[in-house]
Amino acid sequence: MHTEFEEKGVSLFVAEAGSGGEKVRIYFDGQPLDVPAGTSVASALLMSGVRTFRSTPVSASPRAPYCMMGVCFECLVEIDGRPSRQSCLTQVRDGMAIKRQKGASALNVASAEG
After folding, report:
1. Residue 77: helix, strand or coil by DSSP?
2. Mean local confidence (pLDDT), 31-60
3. Fold of the domain built from segment(s) 23-106
4. Whose CB among 32, 36, 88, 112 lies 3.0–4.6 Å from 42's, allowing a Cys bridge?
């Protein structure tokens, strides 16, 4: 998979040998990925070779999951049009559209007011 940053390498997250279980199709930055059902978005993307999930607002430094348990917020992505979703806490669903988050997400003031 080609992404904005050169990030192809050996994945530290791999599906278990012989785990021919159910797959779902998700889309990351428009690219289809067939991943194991029941995994988190972060795990599925890491197994697929994605290395950069977001960039920081100030320096645009590439970031990726760190803790994998919802504490560090390094795994933020846009999921189905909703920014700042913690990919380590979100389970994959068939047809899910995921985008790399670039910088800070925009604040929708109209929806916040009610």
Report:
1. strand
2. 94
3. Ubiquitin-like (UB roll) (3.10.20)
4. 88
Residue where the block lists tokens 């189905």:
80
The model carries a pTM of 0.78
Residue listed under structure tokens 């194991």: 36
Model confidence at 1, in pLDDT bands (50, 70, 90)?
very low
- The span from the CA of 40 to the CA of 27, in Å, is 14
Neighbour tally for 77: CB within 10 Å: 24
Write the DSSP symbol of residue 51. -
Q: Count Cβ neighbours within 10 Å for each residue of 2-29 and write b for 16 or more, e otherwise.
A: ebeeeeeeeeebebeeeeeeeebebebe
User: Mean pLDDT across the stretch 80-90?
Assistant: 96
| Cα distances (Å, whole numbers) of residue 16 to 12, 13, 21, 47 | 12, 9, 10, 11
Query: 3-state DSSP call for residue 58?
Result: coil
